[in-house]
Amino acid sequence: MFAYLANPARFMRVSGRAWRFVAASGIAALAIGLYLALAVAPPDYQQGESVRIMFVHVPSAILAEGVYYLIALASFVALVWRHPLADVAAQAAAPIGAAFTLVCLATGSLWGKPMWGAWWVWDARLTSVLVLFFLYLGYIALVNAFEDPARGARAGAVLALVGVIDLPIIKFSVNWWNTLHQPASILRMGGPTIDRSMLVPLLVMTLAFVLLFAALLLLRMRATLNERKARALRLAAPPRRADPVSTGAAPVLR
Amino acid sequence: MTLAAWAAMGGYAAYVWPAYGIAAALLGGIALQSWLRCRRSERELDRIQRTTGRQ
User: What is the pLDDT of residues A94-150, one digit of tens each?
Assistant: First the structure.
């Protein structure tokens, strides 16, 4: 599929139809997910209704990490195989990933205040996710810091690959160090410990976030390809102006 | 359960609703920005293709 879509014209054709379908599915999943999260899921026996923050916090955390993995993978593909859309995908994904990371940090803080008694603690999990947010910002800044977009893309790809080291640190921070943050309750040995009444809304919200991310990724990639093509056309043939010289009419003095 | 009781979120309304609000603002914001940028790029490309006569 990646080789098939390596042709930007073909990508534009396929993505032009695909993004609407993906976005519509995402909005539908989001509507169901919000209903389950806010109305159907029961309050937690310890956390009360504040547990509803988890239905936004956990999916955005999954996306924050998942999008970074995607950027690293796309960067690797761009550096090694020079796939023409890999850089485009990585750069399109970065602002979306940064937004999910910020949502994760903000919602976590809003849950931490009533449950832990603190908006923020410098423990391993929170700090490593903050580092992830700065990695996103650093990547975006570095890519745009060069006059030559190809050089920016290459520098950004190297940073993205080096930054991957933060992801296992985030994942295992709750096991390696004493942290306030609770350990994994879904992806763990022996199956999820979370009750089905909360697991289902969590999974639906995660699906919604994944679909919305995919739709936005396609939209942003399409925007970049349009902008590149417009620039190439402008360089190849400066737009004809109706200036008097080329039309043969006498110049008008103003 | 009344609507008011639901909105009170068992006393956690001051934390639950801002959490959903911030998520909606950030994700809605990036969605809107992505869509507007894509639409603008389509119009700009269309304009250039018309003025230069190239595809």
Answer: 999 999 999 999 999 999 999 999 999 998 999 999 999 999 999 999 999 998 889
Q: Which domain holds residue B46?
A: 12-52
Domain assignment present for B26: yes
B41 neighbourhood in chain A, CB within 8 Å: 222-224, 226-227, 230
- Inter-chain CB proximity A52 and B16 less than 8 Å: yes
Q: In angstroms, what separates the C-alpha of B37 from chain A's closest C-alpha?
A: 6
Asked whether the ipTM of the predicted complex exceeds the cut of 0.90, the reply is yes
Q: Measured between CB atoms, which of B16, B34, B45 is closest to A50?
A: B16
A51-94 residue pLDDT tens:
999 999 999 999 999 999 999 999 999 999 988 899 999 999 99
Q: Does B7 touch chain A (CB under 8 A)?
A: no
The long-range contacts involving A158-164, CB below 8 angstroms and separated by at least 24 positions, are A158/A75, A158/A79, A159/A135, A160/A68, A160/A71, A160/A72, A160/A75, A160/A90, A160/A135, A161/A72, A161/A75, A161/A76, A161/A79, A163/A68, A163/A72, A163/A132, A163/A135, A163/A138, A163/A139, A164/A68, A164/A69, A164/A72
Residue B3 lies in a domain: no
Q: Which of A43, A56, A96 sits opposite B10 (nearest CB)?
A: A43
At residue A44, the 3 state secondary structure works out as: strand
User: Measured between alpha carbons, how far is A193 from A179 in angstroms, rounded to an integer?
Assistant: 19
Of A53, A233, A240, the CB nearest to B19: A53
Tally of domains within chain B: 1
| Residue from B6, B45, B46 to probe the interface with A (highest A Cβ count within 10 Å) | B45
**Chain B closest-CA separation from residue A235 CA (Å):** 11
- B5 belongs to a structural domain: no
